[in-house]
Amino acid sequence: MTDGVTQGHDAFTALGDAVRAALSERGFTTPTEPQRKAIPALARGDDALVVAPTGTGKTETAMLPVLDALVQADDRFGIGALYITPLRALNRDMRERLEWWGETLGLDVDVRHGDTTDYQRQKQANDPPDVLVTTPETLQAMLTGSKLRVALEDVDHVVVDEVHELAAAKRGAQLTIGMERLREVAGRFQRIGLSATVGDPEEVGRFLTGGGPCSVVEVDIGSRLDVEVVRPQVTDRDERLSSELVTDAETASHVRYIDDLIAEKESVLLFVNTRQTAEALGSRFKELGTNLGVHHGSLSKEARIDVEDRFKAGDLDALLCTSSMELGIDVGHVDHVVQYGSPRQVSRLVQRVGRAGHRRDEVSTGTVVTTHADDTLEALAIARQAQDGDVEPAQIHDGSLDTVANQIAGLVMDTGEIRAMAAYHVLARAYPFRDLGEAEFKEVVRELAENNVVWLDEERDTLEKRRGTWQYFYQNLSMIPDEATYEVEDVASGKQVGTLDERFVVNFATPGEVFVQRGEMWRITNIDEEEEVVTVSPIEDPAGEVPSWTGSEIPVPEAVAQEVGELRRVAGSQLQDGAPVDSVASHVAARYDGDRETVADGLSQLAGHEGPIPDDETVLVEFHGREVVVNSCHGHTVNETLGRILSALLGQRAGSSVAMEVDPYRIELEVPRRITAGDVIEVLEETAPDHIPALVELSLKNADALKFKLAQVATKFGSLKRWRGRGSTDFGRDRLLAALEDTPMYEEAMREVRHEDLAIEATATLLERLQSGEVALETVAERTPVGLGGRSSGRELLSPENADASVIQTVRERIQSDRVILLCLHCQDWDRKQQVGRVRDKPECPKCGSTRVAALNPWADEVVSAVRADEKDEDQEKMTERAYRAGSLVQTHGKQAVVALAARGVGPHNAARIINRLREDEDEFYRDILRQEREYARTQSFWG
Fold it and tell me: What residue stretches are annotated with the Helicase ATP-binding domain (predicted)?
C-alpha cells in the first residue's frame, strides 16, 4: 500500500488489506471528502446516509466497506449485498464501475432488472452473485421467488442510490416496505443511502432506516458552487441569426450566447426543464451547427446510450438534457453546466450544477440563462439559496394507501399465506407508514378481497393467495402509473426514433402533423393504435410542432417565490422613490449572482409599476373587466390551492364556472360579469382558514386531475384492470368517481392530488396573515405591468413563433375538413352536422332564418339536448350558456367564428380572444389557433 493512502487518512485504514491493495492499484491515493467522513462508520456496520454531489465518489464511499465485508465473509452462499438504483440506465453504470472491483477482489457482481433474460435469472437463482445491482421494482419480484428467497437470506448490506429521488415518490414508499419484507427473510442488514443535497437529510435517513438510528454524512456543496445568472442582450447578430434559426431575435440571442459558452468550455451539460424545450432548442442548435447531443427519457435506449458514450469520449462538446441527467449516469468529466430558464427549485440547481467539476477541490461552475423578468428574479433567488444551503425538503409520500394495497399483495405472494396483523406490523415498520391505522389497513384489505386480489379468511385472520393474486402482482410491480407509450418509427429505415406519451398522441397526433424529436423534424404518416406505433418520415423544415409531453410544470416552492417578493419590495420601493434603474440594479447585483444588465432586466416590470407592489408582504388584486389577477408571491402550490378556493366560492356566488390559471406569482381568474371586486376581497377576508380542506375537496370533485388520479389508484387496488387513459372517457371517469367516493381509493386519490399539487396548511397560514393584516391586501382597478407579466413571460421555448407554412396549411386543411354541429338558438328546431369548409360565410337557420346559430363540436349532442330542455340542472345550464356564447360569436363574426370554435380545446372565450386580435393575414389567425390547441393539449388533463 502506498504512502499516499496511509499518510494521515484514517478512512482507508479502516478497510482490509485486499481492498487497500486494490485501491492502490486503482490509483486512489487519497479519499474524497465523503469517503473521509463516511467510510469509518460504514466499516463499523452503521446505517448511514451519505449526502454529496454526483461525481464525488459516493458509489465507492458506500461500496468499499461493503466489498471489504464481503471479502472477509467466507461462509455465505447467497447474495451478500444489493445495490438498488431507480434507473435501469444507472444499472449499466454501476455494473461497469463495480465489475473491476469484483474481478480484483474475487467477487461476482451482476445486474437484474425487467430486461434480464430468463437464462440469466435462472443462473442468478442457482448460483447467486455476491453483489446484485437492481431496481426497486425488480426487488419486489425477487422476494416472491422460492430460490431467490433462499439467496436473499444472506443479504447483509443494502445500498440505495439516489435515495432523495425515491423518498419523494411512491416508488420509494413501495421500496421501504420491500426492505421490511426483505428483513423478514434476511434479518437485520446494513442500510446505506446515497443522496444529492436535500433540505432534511435526517428525515431522509429515517425514511431509509424505518425510523431507526442513521448516521448522516453531508458534504457542503453550496460553498463550492459558482453560479452566474445571465439574461442575454439582443445584438445585431441575433437579428440576423433569427431568420436562419426561424425564431425571434430574443430566442436567437439565447442560442447564440449558449453556443459561445459551449465553444469556450471543454464539456458542457445544458439542462432544460421540459422535453419539449429540449427538442425545440436542440433543433435550433442543429441549425447553428453546434456539436451537441440531445438526451431525455422519451428517446430510445440506444439513442441515449449513444450520446452518453459520445459525450464521455469527447466526441460531443455538449449534452442537452432534462432531469434524466440529474441522476448519477456516468458521462465523464463535465467542466461547466448551463441551465436554460430558471431551474424552478433550489435542489435542481444544486444537483445540476453540482455535476460540474469534482477534480480535487474544484468549484462547480454554472450559468443560468433566463428568458423573462420573473425567470430572472427567480433564478437569482434560487442561486442565492443554493449557495447558502437552503434546499427544499424531500416530500415523502406518507401513508399512500395504493402502496399499502400493492404491498399486501406482495406479502401474500411472498409466503402464500400470512396473518393479517403480521402483514400490518411489517407495513407499519416502514417509515412512510408509521402512522397507518389498523382500521385503515383493514379497509384496504377488504377492498382487495372484494376485488379478488387476495383471499380474506376473517375467522382465522389470514390473507391468502388466490387465482387473481399472481396476475395482479406482476401487472403492478411498479407504482409508476400505467399509461401507453407509443413507439415512433422512421418509415424509411424502420428504426425506432423515440417514444410519445399516450396523451400527446390522443390530443395532437394525426397524419400530416409535424413535430420535433431527437432535435430533428418528423411528419406523422400513420398511427397504429393496436400496436401503439406512430410511423413518421423525416422532413427538412427547421420548424414545427413540439410534442406535448406528459407531466406538469415543475412547481416553484413558496420560499423561492417569497424571496422574489422580497426583491420586488426592496427594489420597487427604491424605484418608486425615484432611484434610477441602473443604480437599483447595481445594488441588487452586489448581493446576487447577476450582472447589472441582467438584474435591470429582471426589474423591468417594476420600473413602470405605479401603486402598491405585490411582494412578500403584500397581495395585490387587480381588476379589468372580467379579468381578475391576484398577485401573490407564494409559489405554485399555495397559489393553486388559493386559486381553487377563489374559483369555487366565486363560481358558487355567480352560479357559473370561473376559469383559473396560476403561476408562482399570480392567480388569474376570468369571472362572470356579476362578480365584483368586493366579492373577491370578501372571499379572501372572510373565508375561515380551517374550512380550507373541505373547500379544496369540493373544488376537486369535478376536476379531471382527481378523476385521472382515481383511475390510476383504482388500478393499483385491482378495481380497474390495466386502466388506459385513451379508453377512459370523461363520462367513464365521472361514473368511476361516483362509484368509488366512499372507498380508500377515493381517499388515496384525494391525498395524492393534495400532496403533489396543493399546500393546504401554507394556504391557511396565508389567509390568517391576510386577515390579521400581517400581509397587506391591496386592490387596483386596472392591469399592472407586474400582473400582466404572467401572460407574456411564462411560455417555455416550444417552437418558433412563426410556424412554417406547411404546418399552418396542415392546420387549415384539418379544421376545414372537421365537422361541427350547427344549432339554431332562436327556434331550436334545426340542427345539422356539417364540414367546416362547407359552412356558409354567414350561417342561418333554414327554418326560421335566424343568424343566431351556435357552432358546436360534433360530439356535443348533450349540449343540444341541454339547450332544448325545459327544466335544466346545473350542468345543463352551463352547457346552454356556453352554446349561447358560441351563437353570439357566429352571429357577429360568421364563418371565422365557426373555424375558431371547431379547433381543439378552443371554447367561446378563447375563440373570441383569437378573433379579436389584430393581425396582418389569415396565416396569423391559424397560428393563434395552433397556439391555443397546444396549450389545450398541454393542460387538458388538469382542467376542472
Answer: 39-216
Which band of pLDDT confidence, cut at 50, 70 and 90, is reported for residue 548? Answer: very low
Beta-carbon contacts of residue 322 (< 8 Å; ≥ 6 apart): 271, 272, 273, 274, 275, 278, 295, 296, 297
pLDDT tens for residues 28-79? 878 888 999 999 999 999 999 999 877 677 888 999 999 999 999 877 789 9
Residue 319 lies in a domain: no
DSSP-assigned beta bridge partners for residue 321: 271, 295
DSSP 102-148: HHHHT--EEEESTT--HHHHHHHHHS--SEEEE-HHHHHHHTT-HHH
Contacts 24+ apart (CB under 8 A), 30-36: 30/4, 30/5, 30/360, 31/57, 32/56, 32/57, 32/61, 32/360, 33/219, 34/58, 34/61, 34/217, 34/219, 35/11, 35/60, 35/61, 35/64, 36/9, 36/10, 36/11
Q: Are residues 130 and 167 in the same domain?
A: yes
Q: Any idea what DSSP says for residue 7?
A: T
- Residue 906 and residue 764 share a domain: no
Asked if pLDDT for residue 796 goes beyond 50, the answer is no
Question: Are 735 and 819 contained in the same domain?
Answer: no
Find the domain containing 456 and state its range.
Answer: 401-475
pLDDT tens for 180-228 read 999 999 999 999 999 988 889 999 999 999 999 999 999 887 778 899 9
Task: Give helix 908-916 / helix 922-939 axis angle, nearest 10°.
Answer: 150
Average pLDDT over residues 545-562: 68
**Cα–Cα distance measured from residue 599 to residue 376, given in angstroms and rounded to the nearest whole number:** 7
If you search the block for the grid coordinates 400581509, which residue do you land on? 775
Pick from 451, 475, 499: which residue ends a domain? 475
Query: What sections of 418-458 are H helices per DSSP?
Result: 420-429, 438-450
Identify which has the larger pLDDT, 544 or 865.
865
Do 177 and 136 have their domain in common? yes
> Is the predicted pLDDT of residue 793 greater than 60, yes or no?
no
In a domain, 284, yes or no: no
Confidence label for 870 from pLDDT (cuts 50, 70 and 90): confident
Give the other-Cβ count within 10 Å of 174's Cβ: 29
Residues ≥6 apart with Cβ < 8 Å to 98: 59, 63, 83, 109, 131, 133
Average pLDDT over the chain, rounded to whole? 85
DSSP 163-219: HHHHHTSHHHHHHHHHHHHHHHHH-S-EEEEEE---S-HHHHHHHHHTSS--EEEE-
Mean pLDDT of the 639-650 span: 93
Q: Please say whether the beta carbons of 131 and 80 come within 8 A.
A: yes
Strands 496-501 and 417-419: unpaired
**Is position 414 within any domain?**
yes
The answer, as to whether pTM is greater than 0.85, is no
Read off the CATH number of the domain in which 492 is found.
Answer: 2.30.30
**3-class secondary structure, 520:** strand
Q: How many domains does the chain have?
A: 5
pLDDT exceeds 70 at position 938 = no
Residue 700 parent element (H or E): helix 692-700
| Same domain? 426 vs 503 | no
In sign, the C-alpha dihedral spanning 27, 30, 33, 38 is positive
Nine cell digits for residue 879:
352547457
**What is the C-alpha separation between 390 and 342, in angstroms, rounded?**
16
Q: Is the pLDDT of residue 724 over 60?
A: no
Sign of CA dihedral 723, 729, 730, 733: negative
CATH of the domain at 450: 1.10.10
Tally Cβ neighbours within 10 Å of residue 826.
Answer: 16
If asked whether residues 457 and 490 sit together in one domain, one would say no
Q: How many helices (H) and strands (E) does the chain have?
A: 41, 29
Q: Please identify, among 435, 454, 475, the residue that sits at the C-terminal boundary of a domain.
A: 475
